[in-house]
Amino acid sequence: MGFCSSAFKILWRTKYFVLLVLSLSVLAWITAFSGETVKSVLVSSATTQTHVKGDGQGDKLHSRTGVPDDLNTPPRKVDCPKVSPLLQGAVKLSFDSCLTLKAVVTENENVTEGEYEPSDCAARQSVAILIPHRNRERHLLYLLHHLHPFLQRQQLHYAIYVIQQAGDATFNRAKLLNIGYLEALKDYNFECFIFHDVDLVPENDHNLYVCEDQPKHLVVGRNATGYKLRYKGYFGGVTALTREQFLQVNGFSNTYWGWGGEDDDLRIRVELQKMKIVRPPADIARYTMVFHKRDSGNEINKDRMKLLGRTPQVWRKDGLNSCSYRTLSIDRLPLYVNVTVDIGKP
Ligand code: BGC
């Protein structure tokens, strides 16, 4: 009895301490439980985002966030190696007059609406290839035949866009390329853009169709000109600019109708931004030019020198931000997205 009453007295005196310990334990338990809840809410909202499709802007492809859709989704792919093991170096090109579009489609069944991404690794860059075009179906076929396997060996995520000038007004390569950039960005937020002539076929797959921290010129040499750079500032044929680099120079000028000058104009824009043009080694940056006569509707632009003189004054208001056109159709064909546009006339 004596022991019980003294134990009761001790407990009574320390009642506040016991209460405090009890409250702290309950608090600790609540905190741990709610932490788990917050975590699971965060994971489920991230998972939901991968399913959400926007208004068509930047959502053509499946989400590339790497967040799993649900527990059954395989984990994010590992990055593709810096140097693709699939590269072959200089390849023998063929220009078989019997080649058909159907055959090229069959050879590229892994390409959907002009787009491809490696199945076993995450591509290092997402690249849009833009090809201005009018009445050069045979050249386009040869280019697609070589370009699809070439880009796949480079383990890129890519999509090919062909921008067709409707009607028979004078051709405007630069404006078509501006349109290609604007239209491709509606499909996906590509980080790199390759501005590509239809008649130039790359000979060596070490000539990587990726962007660098400076604008890149990929055509050092062509068979037709003894594989020599045409002149020091030559920036024509095939060039690679990041989304930001192209935006920074306000794209191409829209005012070059007919052959020549628009590529020199782009070089001036790049130089005005204090960017430096880079080129791959000459033994790699080699192209075969598919022979053709000058197209009617693409006569030499006699005004080009005059236009080049005013580039430093006009580049800010003549370019991407002033490119007006009417889209006539967008056809998602097996090997490329075909964008047909009315761009007006000179
Ligand atoms: C033209 C360029 C062309 C180059 C090479 C220059 O005179 O202005 O547009 O790419 O020649 O043919």
UniProtKB/TrEMBL annotation:
Domain Galactosyltransferase C-terminal residue range list: 216-293
GO molecular function terms attached to this record: metal ion binding; N-acetyllactosamine synthase activity
Principal cellular location given in the protein's record: Golgi
Residue span, Galactosyltransferase N-terminal domain: 80-212
Cofactor(s) needed by this chain: Mn(2+)
Annotated region described as Disordered, given as residue ranges: 51-75
CDD domains in UniProt: b4GalT
Keywords: Disulfide bond, Glycoprotein, Glycosyltransferase, Golgi apparatus, Manganese, Membrane, Metal-binding, Signal-anchor, Transferase, Transmembrane, Transmembrane helix
Domain of life per record: Eukaryota
Similarity annotation: Belongs to the glycosyltransferase 7 family.
The protein's name: Beta-1,4-galactosyltransferase
Gene that encodes it: b4galt4
